[in-house]
Amino acid sequence: EAIAAEALLRINEFNSQNIANTVWAFACVGWDSHKFFITFGTAIAELLANFTDTQKSQLYIVASYVQLTWPHVDFPLSRHLESLRSAYVRQESA
After folding, report:
1. Which residues contact 84 (CB under 8 A, 6 or more apart)?
2. DSSP letters along 5-49, please?
């Protein structure tokens, strides 16, 4: 919890790679806080144009995790799911 709290405090210091790696890592360990993912998802949605296909691929996995875990939650990246999925497909076929 301390790492998540610190990440949320420093979110404004993160670049796109830091953000993608952070949310991906928390999704991989099954982090159980939709508020954490919503906060990061909001920052991501505002910066999405700055993300590479590799980073968007990571975000697609995160968005999928959030949707499966909390289907009732309005996750900011849900509105960008198709573009994230396209990046994921491009990465998988590369």
Report:
1. 56, 57, 59, 60, 63, 77
2. HHHHHTGGG--HHHHHHHHHHHHHTT---HHHHHHHHHHHHHHGG
What is the identity of the amino acid at 26?
Answer: F
- Measured distance CA(13)–CA(83) in Å, rounded: 25
Give the other-Cβ count within 10 Å of 17's Cβ. 14
Question: Tokens 């796109």 correspond to what residue?
Answer: 16
Q: Are the C-beta atoms of 11 and 19 separated by less than 8 Å?
A: yes
pLDDT tens-place string over residues 11-59:
889 998 999 899 999 999 999 898 999 999 998 888 899 999 999 999 9
d(CA 1, CA 66): 18
User: Of all helices (H) and strands (E), which one includes residue 54?
Assistant: helix 53-69
